[in-house]
Amino acid sequence: MKWRAITSALTVCTLGVVALDRVFPPDLSRYRAASLFLLDDEDRLLDGRVSSDGAWRIPTRRADIDPGYVTLLLRTEDHRFADHPGIDPFALARAAYQLAVRWRIVSGGSTLAMQTARLLSPHPHDVAGKISDLVRALQLEARYGRAGMLDIYLTLAPEGGNVEGIRAASLLYFGHEPQHLTLQEAALLVAIPRRPGALRPDRHPDAAIAAAARVLERSGLTWGGDTDPIGRRPVSHDAQALLGHEWSLGRRGIVRTTIDGGLQRTARRIIQSMVPPPRGEFAALVTRRNRTVAIWIGGAGPAGDCPGCSVDMVTARRSPGSTLKPFAYGMAFDQGTLTPGTILRDERMGFSGYTPRNYDRLFHGGTTATVALQQSYNLPAVQVLRLVGPARFVSTLASCGIHLVLPRGTTAPGLPVILGGAAISMLDLASLYGALAEHGMVEPVRVEPGPAGIGRPVMGPRAARQIVAILRGTPPPPGVTDWRSRGIAFKTGTSYGQRDAWAAAATPDWTVVTWAGRPDGTASPGITGRETAAPLMARLLDVLTLADGRIAEAGAPVERLGDLSPALQRLGQDDRPRILAPSPGSSVEGSGDGGRMQPVGLEASGGTPPYRWIVDGSPVVVLPGGMPAWRPDGPGFAHVAVIDANGRSGAANVRVR
Known about the structure:
elongated, Beta-lactam/transpept-like, hydrolase, Beta-lactamase, 5-stranded antiparallel sheet
């Protein structure tokens, strides 16, 4: 009877504990809110975006970390880690005894599980908070085991400012993943969480190094004479459009790309040195022969004077002007209804009420297919598409993974498709032009390492060779004299109403597509593919062909931004605070699950912290230990302002989607 009562009591207690665990689960929202890091093709940091709560944080597992760091962490913070269930009774008893005898805290009794509990739910360091940590520590280890709990700590460990977790800290401080850390780097990452504010390496490097040296000393190790473990790596926003694209796809953590970091920065400098269309900008996409992306610049215009400049023009679908003409000619060559020497009529004619005209408003009489394509005459191109058939032309492109978007209300493709009467993205246009150097086989463009896609023929090998030979004779862009000798096949295009200017080139090693215009889709009078987009294409090809495709860092050297993320930099010599996230003029995703608006992380640099934030005239409340974030009321425009401790301010206008 006695044992039955004991068993019943234990059963009730167990069920009660399980019920409490289900009713009050750990809040893992911070653990799951990850930032995004883009790495280039040599695993160097290319760009990054903070998490929704404003932190640089990457999901981290023990397998991602150098074993030496883990050993040093456990020796320093919880040397009986493998022997207790989340709380260490011996450490707690020792801490209580020292407090009773000396009337002050001599050593703490916190385990890594207790520290993790506090990281998940920040609270004041009082008795109630300590009790909460004890209970949560037991819960964490019971739920996730020691390995799972340690992964949470490795992801959330405060490493100074808004840098959290070992992977994020290693990338931002040392420029590499934490799988291979030096002894000094490991000691620094162990030391900073003890006093993350006072040991920030960017603000207090001497204190951080001294604390790291003490960590090593307590483990019987020495600093080894190295006085500066903090590597200085250039970290800048070099691929903002690609970053936004990956973010919109739900990508978080570390994303390795095929982007060539040196070429990307060189292309950005070239674009910034050129005069963009009024209230417009340039965009560029460069792919290698294997269809991997080397350069992705979705726009580089000044946000304050360029409506819609937050749009990524690499993925946006716009009218391609005349850039699709070579593929209609190639299909006609394939089906035997046309040859490069066929005479086409360039004269006034109508097609069931459709009366196209040439860009120069002139008619040139009888001309060969070769000359008609090189000179981009419209009337011959419409005749060629009529031979091929608009429906067959569009369906052939679709079978290759190239999907044209017809104007709203259009039920079937018509002849205007060949003159830009359907929208296409730069990604798809690059896939098409890349096929010219690959015997007419279209493969999808890739921006992440991986196997090549399945190729589909847009035209046969013979037709592809004929099109390349014709396009190599296209008149070169203004100021280019040695174009034909370099074997560059290219085509330009200007959309109706001068909204989009295009240039696309194919060489044996590279495909280059450039665009110029206004991202909001309004007209930009005066732009043409030949005069506006082609000069940028020519300059990019100059860089790509130097030294057998190796990077030529033309112009000023890359600005070295220091060893930390942009969130921890002072930008330029102006000491006013500047808003980094959300970036001025950008669009931010506000809608979350169920239509509820999600928080938008706020990040600033420069000036003198702490910062105060104001959105649309209302101050943003920041909880102790939390990161500044603002929850929009709904879609629309918002004015974000930041004020530093000296009263200096910065502001940004953003759009909430």
